[in-house]
Records
---
Amino acid sequence: MHTKITLLAGVAALTLTACSSMMMSTPDAPAAVTVPAGNKVVMKTVGIGELTYQCRAKANMAGAFEWVLAGPDAILYDSNKMAVGKYYGGPTWEANDGSKVTGKQLAVSPNPGSIPLQLVQANPSMGKGAMADITYIQRLNTVGGAAPASACGAGNVGAKQIVKYQADYVFYRASM
């Protein structure tokens, strides 16, 4: 009986390892937003929320106006649909354990009708936990979130509109 239990435990451990490896595979992405070699996927989430846009005058273009992203507000979910963190202005990704990371956009790839796919290089993280030592973040599989189609002009400068969106956020750390 002891041998059976040990064998079953071993099979279960191998199955979990295999599933974990499959879940953490590097996703397909356009070249522009591909993470550099030497980094591995450590967490995948789905962000569901809203993007706020504000009508503003275009810089260096007298009389021209545009909708500008004022900030995101989304909940990050794991593959079990459990909330594991949030995404908000900065840009900042914060895990439920209090760790967080900000970053700088390196590249985008268009996704017609939705916000573009994105590659972000992470700044040094704050706190210990899920966001510790993150090196890159990809935004993939975006749905919605594009700037409003409504008019933005002198008559509504400062107006805000909220647009719903969803995107996959993939987090990387340097390979050891």
---
Amino acid sequence: MEPYEYADLDAVALRGLIRGGEVTAAEVEDVARRALARADEALNALAGPPFAPGEMPHRAPDGPFAGVPFLIKDGGPFARGVPFTVGSRAVRGAVAREDHELMARFRAAGLAVLGRTAVPEMAFSFATESRRYGTTRNPWAPGRGAGGSSGGSAALVAAGAVPMAHANDGAGSIRVPASCCGVVGLKPGRGRVPCGPAVGEASFGQSAEFAVTRTVRDAAHLLDAVAAAPVGEKYEAPPPPRPYAEMIRTDPGRLRVAVSTAAAAPVDAQVAAVAVNAGKVLEWIGHEVAEDAPGVEPDDVVEAMMLSVFAAGAMLKAPERLDRSLLEAVSRRLLAETEAATALDVLAGVAAQHRATRPVGLFFTRYDLLVTPTLARPPAPHGALAYDDPGHTARSWLRRLFEYGPFTAPFNVSGNPAISLPLGQSREGLPIGVQLVAAHGREDLLLQVAAQLEEAVPWKDRKPSVLTGA
């Protein structure tokens, strides 16, 4: 297998070739390692060197993705025996003591995990830039950011180094980099995919774990492999009527779709136009489309997101060896505000979460789907979101993030499933993502409509300037 052939295949196609005997898993891993080295040299998207062969054992040889190359995010304790830094110089010698439940499912799926992807410090930025690992570059335009906090994963998937990679999302960290890098970013709804054991459990159901992919079918097949809450999980989503991989091949029928490009922050005209066009395509397909949006107050989103601030602060306090003097400025502030917080501060965040969640729930009694831009602007230049800025409080940092990405966090607060699709490009050729949001438990509907859009507005033939094997 040549690198250009490998880079053109999604995970389902690769697994089909391995199962059919046309290529061995060892051959796929060899080409993936070469592709990963070339892509990382251009993008700076890995958190340290790739794992040595055999360093990540215990993957199922007969799993649905057996032998398919994969990466995990350096976002905290995730894989047993694997070091983590959460993108911080202050975290030293930290090693995960057990597998996250999702990591155990990745192993059962047979994924060949080759390394860790870069994140901003504490995974608390929409730009993957840190003093520990430097700047991760966008494969479409190396002078632009890859988004965050799963920017390393999204950049390497877009560049053809791996067909999909682990990502998680506390305010948009799957969908934002997916939009920046021109890939698919599914944030499952609350209770669909396990979030523990990890600090993500402390974010009051606002964090979600999954992956970024290049195709909708990979997202559907991977969700089939890892979904379902473990016994005793605080949040559970209802099971789908059939496997997602089957449902994306069926028509969801005529749906009620709302489109909104309005936000508290200015929205770039090109970005808004791509979302509006997605609504027109859905209308052409046969859905009923109107202009509308949930009435969520931006201040309630910020206050509810303080719960995630406290979760990030708890993550900072978790490592046994933490050199606070090496933390970046916003992290120091998050830690200080977490340590100063009282039970009343936490209850205020919970109350704000309820105030934001109720109008979203009511909205989805009137509509099946919401369409918005993913970001307010195309991918930002490096340094536009300066995390090491001592002028920020936790709330001012959240507001700065939401000027860039005002559309994603409300659905972390409410827990609805959402997906970013690479449906457009700017005049400069930069990716523009469109977000689809569905009601609780309706990942099936979300993926069905995403598959319709992938067929109607295909993105497979659009390639970034940094592409393995090009």
---
Amino acid sequence: MQQYPPNIEHIDQDMLKVEVNLDDTPGEWLGYVMEKLFDAGANDVYYTPIYMKKNRPAVQLQLLCSKELLTEIQSILLKETTTLGIRYYPITVFRMERRTRKIKLKWGEVTLKEGLQDGTVVKVSPEYEDCRLLAEKYGIPLKDVYAAVWRQIEVGTT
């Protein structure tokens, strides 16, 4: 698989979507499994609540990874969860060009993550960790930090 820098708009070929249904895996194991999958190189890992046969509540674990990682990903899933089987299928992923920049608020700096399409910024999102640290440091609600970021973006003073 051709590797692209994360900030260049591109299409990832040879990706896989991997999924397992877990109706008897304790919830506290899920975060641990997620970390192991990310450490192994998974691009994304997420859980969705589902119902299985006999109307049992369960979780579907889904992830995206390159084909080269499938053997390692399968090993983690089989060793760290209660699944007896793994589904996977090819998928193509479009990735926007990405860049970051910093803005100054009265409490400090916040990193903005920008998504570009054809060189034009079409998405902007404040970095959660920066906002969280400012909220904790100054004892202000997190939503107020986010609001200050959005106000500054709207008036174009970034």
